[in-house]
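Next comes a concrete protein, fold included:
___
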Amino acid sequence: MGGRPEIRLRRGLRRAFALGAACALLGGVGLADTVAMGPSGSGTWHEGSLKIPLYRGGVVPFELTVIATPNNCSTNVTTQITWSESENWVKVTLTGKGALQPYPTVTRTEGVDWIPNAFFPDSKDVINGRYQFWIISAGPLTTFYYDGTTLDLLGSELDFEAQPSGSIPVQFPTLRAVGSQMFEPAANGDVSFTWNFPYNSLTRGDLPQYGHHIVTFIPPNLCQANPFRFDLSTARPYISKPLPASQALPFSEYLRAGLIFDLTVEPPTYVVDPPRTNLTATYSGATNIGGAIPKGWTMDIDAAFMNNVPPIRPWPGAGSCANYYNPLHTKGLNFCPSP
């Protein structure tokens, strides 16, 4: 193979990641105008409802900690969403018996189950925390910039007004993520939570001046990226600042792309301003996997990014009631040729 390594990587990444992963993320079970979706659902994009159970480990991104939950991790949370485009409302409810610990505390160890990340700032420890529910779906291809000399990640098009001089642009598939207002369960751990928002504009429930975040998993350095094998690449989480509410999208955009749900554990105060989210969570699930994700299974992110099947696999944390950490995604390989 000839040519500059960064050019080959850029072309390969654009072809393998952008096309394959975007198709995989977009290609799950969506809601058609005449077909109900998911384990329990009915209606159309315009008016309908769905109900889906969320389990520990359903969707576990890299470097996320799934905490142990009450009652020996035997419970779950159920999400129900109803919507009406004509009346411009969406209602989300979460219910669960003894499912969450009030004011949770999570401690992590740097270098073991927490690695600082300038592109995903979160709190190592959560003391007397709170909960936040997230609606996530496939997002746009987004341009990221890498230093033309070191090949280190500089940030995305959302972090710069213009492309940094001498940088290498690479497009990656992304997700959109929007969080609810914060909440706590009852003293006995029961969950009864409601989030209402207008159909035509999904904004953060805690800070409605903000819309969605852009989230993805990308190489911190282009030499750590295999253009054709995401599973061999090093990838770390990235989250943008929240977009302004003026750029918020209607709920239909999320429905059509397939939904992922996550119930995170957040610090009692925001870590950065504007806030992002913490890589500590409880229950999760998805409708973009046909029939949803069953208990004891997890979305296979490597398979999704490489457009492979099946898109789920057994979750390694199943059968144990302890905090589970999904480690840094890396094989420690360098794909740049020696000088």
The chain is about 10% helix and 30% strand. The mean pLDDT is 90. Residues 5-325 form one domain. The longest strand covers residues 47-56.
